[in-house]
Design brief:
It is globular, with a radius of gyration of 15 Å. Helix 3 packs parallel to helix 4. It contains four helices and seven strands, in the order E-H-H-E-E-E-H-E-H-E-E. The protein has a four-stranded antiparallel β-sheet, sandwiched between helices. The longest helix has 18 residues. It has 170 residues and is of the alpha+beta class.
């Protein structure tokens, strides 16, 4: 489980549906996230179920971003295995509710997610995709140590990566 000084990412639970639905109904928050389209309550419930199963299957996934001091769900994110690629990769994703913007939560999450991926999951590489106009998210992934490697025309996103540093030779 990803933990930071203020946050933790945990598996989505059915009780998270109201907060999850509210987050995925906010068109401003979703402007550069995924396809940018708000979800109906039914679609949010299906997405929640998908990521809960993904967590059960892989031992990690995108989950509820929860403030430690209040247990309030403030976003959705973490690390997940891509399900759409023929050669799946682990990617970083985050969506913070608008009420929490400007507090450095996304950066805190991203930095700790990268550390968790390398130290706890033994990953060699973590990727991310960011819309070019989402300057806040561009800064977040760069502060987490990721570097831009390409532009994917088909999804109109910059592609980022960070690789596990090689172990020193003895």
């Amino acid at each position: 489980m990803i933990k930071t000084p203020r946050l933790q990412v945990r598996r989505l639970e059915p009780a998270d549906l109201p907060a999850f639905s509210e987050l995925f109904a906010d068109e401003d928050a979703l402007k550069y996230y995924g396809d940018g389209v708000a979800l109906s309550s039914q679609e949010a419930a299906e997405k929640l179920t998908f990521f809960s199963r993904h967590w059960d299957e892989h031992g990690f996934s995108l989950g509820a971003i929860v403030k430690k001091d209040s247990e309030e769900v403030v976003g959705f994110g973490g690390l997940a295995l891509s399900w759409w690629d023929s050669a799946p990769e682990v990617f970083l994703s985050f969506l913070i509710g608008r009420a929490m913007w400007g507090q450095g939560l996304a950066t805190e999450l991203a930095e700790h997610a990268v550390r968790y991926g390398f130290a706890e999951l033994g990953l060699q590489r973590i990727t991310a995709t960011v819309h070019p106009a989402n300057t806040s998210a561009l800064r977040v992934v760069e502060r987490a140590g990721m570097r831009r490697i390409d532009y994917a025309e088909d999804i109109q996103r910059y592609q980022y990566e960070i690789c596990q540093p090689a172990a020193p030779a003895n």
